[in-house]
Amino acid sequence: MSTTIIIIAIIAGVVLIGISIYNNLVRLRNNRENAFADIDVQLKQRYDLVPQLVATVKGYAAHEKGLLESVTAARTAAMSAKNIEDKMAADQMLTSALAGLKVSVEAYPDLKANQNFMQLQQELSDIENKLAAVRRFFNSATRELNNAVQTFPGNLLAGMFGFHTEKMYEIEASQRAAMDKAPEISF
Hints:
mainly alpha
């Protein structure tokens, strides 16, 4: 009777260890899938945010450029006016342009497009840093899963339950040369 209990206890211990190993493999696989979902989230943010940021900066730079061009054109017209009617029209145009500039400066005390470009650069850098972080996390999760699949005793159960080593997030050789260059951003 005591031998039967010992055998049952050994079998129960092996089954419990097997269940523990299987559950750990499932946890690691899910962690890896979650890490990849985080990469998707960051890529989606990049795809959504970058065009919006570029359009915003373009629009603001165009607004500022147009405003400053209208003031410059009005000033030039006022300086080159020959007769009274031309001078009055040029003066009204310059007054209107300067009023627009004053309103813009009051609304935006730091009316400088370069700040928008700096912000765009900062946002792009932030997105790329977040992407690098989630890629590192994904590779860490993949490494943990691969270690569990390849090491004893996990390797005994991994194959039986369809677990296998997974690929790391790496740049393919064909893309490596292109990735060594800084990305080009045009406006």
